[in-house]
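Form 7-S
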Amino acid sequence: MRPAVKRLTSEIECISRQKVSRWRDGHSTEEQDQLAVELPVALEFNGVSHAVMLATPHDLESFALGFALSEGIVARREEFYGAEVEESELGVTVHCEISSHAFLQLKQRRRNMTGRTGCGLCGVESLEQVIRALPNVPVATPVSVSAMDKALQELATLQPLNRLTGGMHAAAWSTSAGNLQQVCEDVGRHNALDKLIGVMVGRELNFQQGFLLITSRASVEMVQKAATVGIASLIAISAPTALAVKTAQDIGMTLIAFARGATFVAYAHGDKIKS
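Output:
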């Protein structure tokens, strides 16, 4: 039986209000600004602490599921039995229950990742854990330029937390026609992607029919997380890294960066893009 979920977060709790002095042309005015909230979020699996990340306290159940899948802690949704969110003075703990088989494999990995915003490799114990083996991604529907343009325009209007704070990353899933099915936000780009993966899997949406959009750079960790759940096309608004490009080339992933509507750079498998 899955444990009950204790919901503690809302959009309001993801925003902090702060008095500021705003200067224009040598003159200041007292105003209220809105800031993105980041809290320590501890992920526990079967009672054992595994990772502590700084994250936005929103969609934490989906975050835990997506993290478990994208990091290979569980191989499929059925191995993740549920999550309970607990708040304390120090932060938030997400208590996850996974299958005994998955937990045994997790203990054997002995991976302890104490993370911070924008860091996906803190606490990794060996070089082998950095560049993990990835399967070739499934053959997906080609990405069309018109669909990419449409999705990017829509994405700019579907980031409510970023619109209020200016401090959020987003990860979004678009259909092959350019219609966004889901957008997730977080102060951390890895966290936003994990939340998206968790929501997608929870709703049984298909990773092969569409493409992934991220508002950050395309680092190798983002490619790894996407590939682990079978995403074949990744589109980033910012730059890729050399290792991300090599990894995408090796596993058959279409990797596009510097996406500005119909203007972009294809770094891997550009032959799968249609005009």
